[in-house]
Amino acid sequence: MISFRQESDTLMQDSLAVIKQLQSAQLKEPEELVFHFDTIGWKILAVVLLGLIIVSVYYFIHRYKKNHYRRQAIATVLNIEDNNEFAFKLMLELKKTAIITFGRDKVAMLDGSRWLQFLDKTGDRVEFLKMEEAILNSYYTSRSLERSMSSKARDEAVKWLRTHGR
Fold first, then answer.
1. Around Cβ 138, how many Cβ atoms within 10 Å?
2. For this UniProt entry, which segments traverse the membrane (predicted)?
């Protein structure tokens, strides 16, 4: 037991000596960190961000110009008067737009039911085939559509113009 006590006392004295030395010693504080934006990392980040901004602006301008024909067609469709030529003018504007988008060889030969199927297939959730009879009757006989039907046809045309794919 004596040896354990002696070791314990020795350990205690050593610990106290170390604590006294630490308390009396001057702590070395690190130098103050200086924050500057002129380091290489910030320059790289600035170049990358500037590049992303330039690419994004180019992309949006390009997309805006590319979709100019859509905006023109939508404006034309919205300005078509509800009269006996409504269906003819509506389908004519859609056909012009489809020729611009898909090419004359795929679109020019389509008429009647096949044309409406093409519109349904190339647009997103467009439903011209549900109005097939009314649209084709009005188109081929130059009779005006009912107001509700012409409104629905105009809405479907605008939806197709906004969503048709390439």
1. 24
2. 40-61
Task: Give the torsion sign (CA, 138, 142, 148, 154).
Answer: positive
Domain count, the chain: 2
CA distances from 164 to 16, 111, 118 (A): 83, 18, 10
* Average pLDDT score over residue span 145-160: 89
Dihedrals φ, ψ of 80, to 5°?
-70, 130
Q: DSSP letter string over 24-68?
A: HSPP-PPPPP---S-SHHHHHHHHHHHHHHHHHHHHHHHHHHHTH
Q: 51-71: per-residue pLDDT in tens?
A: 999 999 999 999 999 999 999
Return d(Cα 114, Cα 28) in angstroms, integer. 86
* Domain with 41 in it: 35-66
Note the pTM of the prediction, 2 decimals: 0.69
Domain finish residue from 66, 87, 113:
66
**Angstrom distance (rounded) from CA 120 to CA 77:** 17
